[in-house]
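G.,

No rush on this.
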Amino acid sequence: MSTVLDNPPTISKPAVAAEAIRAQTDGFHLVIDALKLNGIDTIFGLPGIPITDLTRLAQAEGMRVISFRHEQNAGNAAAAAGFLTQKPGICLTVSAPGFLNGLTALANATVNCFPMILISGSSEREIVDLQQGDYEEMDQLNAAKPFCKAAFRILHAQDIGIGIARAIRTALSGRPGGVYLDLPAKLFSQTMDAVAGRESLIKVIDPAPRQLPAPDTVQRALQVLEGAKRPLILLGKGAAYAQADDEIRALVEKTGIPYLPMSMAKGLLPDTHEQSAAAARSYVLAEADVVLLVGARLNWLLSHGKGKTWGGPDAQKLAKKFIQIDISPTEIDSNVPIAAPLIGDIGSCVSALLAGIGSGWKKPPAEWTGAIAERKDKNLSKMAAMLTQDVSPMNFHGALGAIRDVVRQRPDAIVVNEGANTLDFARSIVDMYEPRKRLDCGTWGIMGIGMGFAVAAAVTTGKPVIAIEGDSAFGFSGMEVETICRYDLPVCVVIFNNNGVYKGTDANPTGGKDPAPTVFVKNSRYDLLMEAFGGKGVVATTPDELKRALQEAVASGRPTLINAVIDETAGTESGRITSLNPQKAAINK
């Protein structure tokens, strides 16, 4: 327990016996001690009023404090850390504008089900409530509430232990998500007896207890699965977060059912596994008659479980049924009827299914697995030819083919990926071999997660990180390359530079001087940005140059940025979600 002394002895006064000195602690130290007591050893944030001394003291007390250039990137780092570690990532910000910068990341963490706590300093309540115009005055607590699982404010030092314990338990229990913790400036300087302060802290016991599925629901799910002729297991990022890797692999292999991983579930089983149906995605989603969802939600990423993606009008004739494993009962039937809800934590639910399957489980019909294998072979052969294209400037396939080779050589590397075309192509081209080695835009599909996620991955794992970035996406967090250099992190940023958003070919329809809204400065030297802060910058114009530069970067562990020059005509509008981007209609004026 860190302490401060009330009236410490000085050389001008008689010495006072140590036992007579009343040891005290303050709000700063209580916050730090409460976090450390619960195994939290890293803070992502940005110093300033009123939390500057909190960052200094946290570092002095042995915590790792990663200071960013923008709070949103720090928040994204905290969220990614939560996903990777199953401990709430901590983002620390200043008041009002800093809080708002972190709020986007908090909302994204909640939508993605990543455990995170946004801790923000704030103005004094008595001034804020009367709207008297305090420095950075804002009612942050109520602003945060719609965007997180819960929001708490701590006003008294003796409540810091309770407040942090509640935040941790809320972030981790049930469906994980974001929590906001409001700390007014006056809280930090409050003092109390050190012994009482120590006793006020709480070590959270079992913050995410197992939730066992009811036996009858397990039997129902097994009956539905056993009756399937064309079964499919669909793995979501919740399955990756659960860290029930062995159980999930056993379920897939014991049943023989083909599986389809969502992007952040890639690597739970190697993408090269014979039961992977990723290369026949469209076919299996449309044709499967029973789908077991493990940590996946039927949201827009899965076309809400209906429509053309799932077989269109023919889906009714297929009598498609869903079995859904989810820790939240309210998720069930959110878009389509769920024939067999299985409510509980993923590890417990999968283990229960394994126990019920026994040794005599009948494997899927050869007609189904054979049809998938045929389409996989056809699509993979077609893809292989595209990945060997050696043109300059590069297209997406040639460049990603080079990265794919490096990731195969270094399966321990973590891939961070964002963009439009850069995300879409990388998701299907770059194979993953180990769990939780891929981080991307997630459920909201937002841009700007790149550098924050990359920093978190490097800090929490110590593994090499390859951040595959569209040039537009990189712009949201690009200044954090200084952070990467400052902390000497093993991050290699690969920017797919095609001179614009989607493409670099748009023109101003008026013929005026301003460029089109989607066009950037031609032939930008992003590599020089990394060199400005002491990292290594490389320009790559061919797949071979890109591959060699990436191999060297991963091997060295040195902060590196590869400016991969991509044909500006490559790519499509909005990537694979063009249908979500309304197009102008032809009208008569």
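When you get to it, here's the other one too:
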Amino acid sequence: MSEDALVIFTPSGKRGRFALGTPILQAARQLGVDLDSVCGGRGICSKCQITPGYGEFSKHGVTVEEDAVSPWNAVEERYKSKRGMLPGRRLGCQAKVMGDVVIDVPPESQVHKQVIRKSATQRDIVMDPATRALFVEVTEPDMHNPSGDFERLKEALAAQWGVEAPEAGLGVLRRLQPVLRKGEWKVTVVLNKGNHDQAPRILDVKPGFYEGGLYGLAIDLGSTTVAAHLCDLRDGAVLASSGLMNPQIRFGEDLMSRVSYAMMNPGGDVEMTRAVREAINALATSIAEEAKIDPRAIYEVVFVCNPVMHHLLLGIDPVELGQAPFALANSGSLSLDARDLDLSNINDAARVYVLPCIAGHVGADAAAVALSEEPGKSDEMVLIVDVGTNAEILLGNKTRVLACSSPTGPAFEGAQISSGQRAAPGAIERVEIDPVTKEPRFKVIGSDLWSTDAGFEAATASSGITGICGSGIIEAVAEMRMAGIVDQGGLIGGPDQVGSPRCEAEGRTHSYVLHDGSATGGPKISVTQGDIRAIQLAKAALYAGARLLMDEMGVERVEKVTLAGAFGAHISPKHAMVLGMIPDVPLDKVVSAGNAAGTGARIALCNVGARNAIEATVHEIHKVETAIEPRFQEHFVNASAIPNSVDTFPELGLVVTLPDVSFNTSGSGGGADGGRRRRRG
């Protein structure tokens, strides 16, 4: 074994080699990982809790042995006995590096709370929820009528509300008699009837007239983030939105890495299922606290997710999704009891609805986008792009709708980026670069000021400038291309070629310094050649998927582009097109749909009829499989250039002039002026 061990932190993706015996907290601090600690590493505050991952991690190229972390010690035992600790957790100040290891930093151990970009989008929804509250008056028992209390409750529901033959679980039956008597035979029944239920189901009974709320969760379970919206089931109002990083990231940043983990590590799928269910339980608790409601008043949950997340949520081994023909265990919608998914932090009788998947690589999240955006009702040929670690792409109009998924990877989320981090206060989210001076200015999350504005340092003093998130790296690369710092092939020029000392040598390549805070103990934030390549791979996969659908549809142009998800809400159309992430259209025809998948989940939560609609729609959407289409690779190679080596962008050329520079050989196309300029188109 080497004297130094490789330590990889998730979800940040930061890694480094450390001497054996190095405390994990110390390794985290040296790498700039966001791991909290207020007690100075004495094992008192518990803020530095981490979760080591064991087994084979093909994505990271490491196998983590059971002895990769030092044994459980007396300090940890003392803390656990007094305050408790989740299984698998360790204290980062006590656990030491003893071999190559993957370390997950859970949300509660992170100093800077993530800003979930998948916020709820304003939407008018016709209310027809599956769950509703009904007030009834029940006939009192007497000696001449031997029927049970439940039978008389059913009679009251039939007579007063037309509800026939409702069912009830044992939990409701246990509570029924004391509730009836406390309410003096007047009770409020919480009733649920999903679109496939043969009979309505009584979820709860309350004494008297219940004026409290009935709530539901619409959850977008993504590869990188889990976003939830707490909705009032009476009027559809979103009371709170919250989210966290998907803890499965420690098993693999992309979907195929997680499938690979399940293949190579017996029980790995069970491990990943447990991790995500625990995260959802924690999210339910935190969002209820934020909205100041009793989590037991959450009676329904709707999930949208990609196929791999779908299977892991349900506890189904995803191995078949990793190989052709990419067969799903079940592609239809599902109606379940929350307890089937170990969701214990909400009402114990709560119901779950999982939207249908379209195909093996196009999941319920794409179905939710189709429900929200309705491309099948559009007169225009519209391209809808929902970008995450796995991009869902829809193309169509009233005539026909096509769908595909494209493995963009986590670069758009800020992962696999040298100074990348999740969206949290202190992260660079907006970038502009002067094309003449090559000097940058930027905004960070938590402040509305640009870095060149007076008062910026004071405004960011509490958060600091900690890294760059997904929207920041996308804008940075696009701005570097527009400023002539990066050529069409994605190569960063040297200081002499670009005319800026911010271009620094880094081995055989160069990097561009956005911000250097090292003089005051802060990080040096640069865009490296590796970062450019990661963005090129991600955007090429996205564009190739879109072009593949256009080929299948037989069109050379689209009339409208809708950007969905966190990407759509925070990236300007101009920067997306400069990178070549989306096809060329007039910039005013690129619109943001916000969190369309989350909106689709909310529609399904608040309108039971919409569930029937989307179940019918998914059968009409034609799936195109990128993994087996030879044209995908051709489009991918062409799209690796910025914006593209073959496809022209005439609409972009009307508003942006891209420098015609090349840094492939020393001095080629060089000069401080960045070379000749031309207008693309």
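DSSP finds 18 helices and 31 strands in the chain. Confidence is low (pLDDT under 50) at residues 666-681.

Enjoy the weekend,
O.
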